[in-house]
Amino acid sequence: MKARTRAATLLLTPFFVLFTAVMVVPIGYAVWLSLFTEKQSGLGFGGTETVFTGLDNYTAALGDRAFLEGFGVLLGYCLLYIPLLLAGALGLALLLDSALARARRFFQLALFLPHAVPGIIAALIWVYLYTPQLSPIVRAMEAGGIGFDFFSPEGTLPSVVNIALWEWLGYNMVIFYAALQAIDRSVLEAATVDGASAWRIAFAIKVPLIKSSLAMVGLFTVIGSLQLFTEPLILNKGTGSAVTSTWTPNMYAYTAAFDRNDYGLAAAASVLLALTAALLSFAVTRLTGRRRAGTADTAREADPARTARTARKEQPA
To answer: Could you read off the pLDDT of 101-111 as tens digits, one per residue?
Structure first.
């Protein structure tokens, strides 16, 4: 028993050391930094001094309309981006997993390649494609009588969502496709023999059996959405778009730190955003866990014949 304990300690120690160095220490420093602010003495001719202000930075952030409006932008982004990403990635994965699919390897690679492009490069590519004087896409739209300004207040959010979809759709499609490939083929064969249609097999058997992957991707997508920064930052630099320097909470913290040199306010905004991400992650985890507990997925996975019979019964006559 002692030997096992020593072995476990030896194996886990590197992880906890790394976790402490890259997670616990930075978070602790951000919380500590958020409790202080720098003030100049006298009439501004003296040096600066660090003053303990308690929760004043948090009050200032929460009382700043620009910071709160950033969360409104994130809400609209999540409502538009997350359903499109999940539906698109799942639909592509189901198509690749179907018996009619051809050249699976080619399409997997082609759809995954955009994710290999760094986010800042992807944003620069799409800024070029959004610019009316340069973009062949805009010229083609205008030739077809479609006028749309990607940099306008109404077009900015769809423009950012489009860039994010281009980057992440293929990545999440690969996750769903791997989960679909792990399904026991006997389940699908039994459903086919019992007369279930391809549509019924996809949505009555395949999708329920990969709910854990759907929940995982949904959780990671929510967390990633709250960290929106690179794409709007590029759109903010010299494009004339409606994206401001405080368009998202991350951009608000960046501007506070590097434009206004208010590191206490930037740290407080970052901590508030981290708490929001933690709460949403907890809510998504509890919601998906409760749904899985209230369904018969476990029984279906353990009994392929029952799954096939269910699919056949649910098929309309």
So the answer is: 677 788 888 88
